[in-house]
Structures are given as structure tokens and as C-alpha cells.
Amino acid sequence: MLNSKSSEDTAFKPQEFFNAQWKVYQKVLDKNYMGHREIYSTLHEFLLGYFQQPFRMLDLGCGDASFTAQALLNSTITSYQGIDLSIPALEIAKDNMAKIQCYTTFTQGDFSQLVPELMLSQQNSFDIILTSFALHHLSLEQKDCIIGQMKNLLTSNGVFILIDVVRKEAEDRETYLTRYLEGVQKYWSLLTPQEYFMVANHISSSDFPETQQTLYEISQKYNFTRFDSLYYNPLNATQFLCFYR
Fold first, then answer.
1. Helix (H), strand (E), coil (C) string for 91-127
2. pLDDT of residue 18
């Protein structure tokens, strides 16, 4: 557990807390511990191959959009909207997306609350909706609901792309957490003990991944025409899933 001093520090110094978390996050990305290079290379190839015509993207939980911006290079994107809870991350995202020649908007907020608002306005439609390592923070009921809402925001040939951790079919959450954290301890070798604690605390408190079968059943419930897995890393349980409208 955190000692009382560090707990007080994080409570009263949110910027310092963000900086500490951000430093660990950047280290994980730099060392490619979660396979971002392979995942976003897959995304880049998909975007260039699937979208020959101009397209509009909604990015839910966009973070700093660093890998997304790389994946969008040389694509036909015309409009990008990023949503994230973190104002500092969104400021960095603006800089990262500046190299992409398209119209950009950034919104601070909880995407699980903002997606229903976008749907109800009936003035928004997107060719691609992306959420990367964010949906697993929601409950199953919330995931089910928001995927249904996202379908209504997609154009007729639109695709919802889910990049996220996924449990094995026979795993419950506790078994998944044990397996994942064992992998973190073994393979994320350059994390300091304090950094490992931060990662493990976040995963244990905030990760609620579903199985691929559960996600497939949700896709069927909302009549998505196709459901594909374009990338699977069994080591860290990450999948790249496409829900075709």
C-alpha cells in the first residue's frame, strides 16, 4: 500500500501524480512492453487498405495519440475527434496530430458519457471508431451499452476497432490478473519496484477484460455484419478486434 505521505502527495498534487504515471507509461511504450509497435503497424496497414476514400475517425480514450498519429500517416483521413479524461494528455495529442493533414477536435471527458451525447445529437457519424486499451475499464453492462451506441455512430461501411486486453475463454478475472501480472514481472524487466507497484496497482484495481467470445456475442446482439481479430498477442493477452457495421 502507499504510505500516508505519498497518498497525501497524490491527493493534493494531481499534476505530479500525472507526471509520475506518464513517465511509467512512456517507459512501457518505449520498451514496447505492450506491443504497441506491432499493433499500430497493423492499424496503419488496415487504414490504408480498407479506406480508399476520405474517412472520419472518433478516438475514444485517445491519450496523447502518439501511436495513432503514426498509424494515420499517408491515410485519407479528413476529420479526427479525440476524447480523453486527461487534459495534459490532450494537449500532447494536439501536438502529435498536428502532422496529420485533417480537421481535428479534442474533447475532455469520460467517453462512456460523451458517446450517448454524440448519438443523441444525430449530427455525428464516423467511418471508424477506435478505442485502445480503454474499454476494459468499464463493466460488462457498460461495454455492452456503449458498443451498441457506437454502432449508431458508424456510417454504413464503418468499423469499430477495439484494441484491448482480452481474457482467455476459461479464465475468470482473478486468474487473468495473476497471469498478466506474472508476465509483467517477468518481461517488463526495466521497471523499478516502484514503477511495477504503480502498474500492478492500476491493473488490479481498474482492469475488467472480457473474453473474445463475450465480445463476439455483443457484436451479434447489435447485428454487426462481421467480427474479426487482426492481431493477437497471447503473451500479454492483447487483441485487435474489428466490428464491421
1. HHHHHHHCCCCCEEEEEECCHHHHHHHHHHHCCCCEE
2. 53
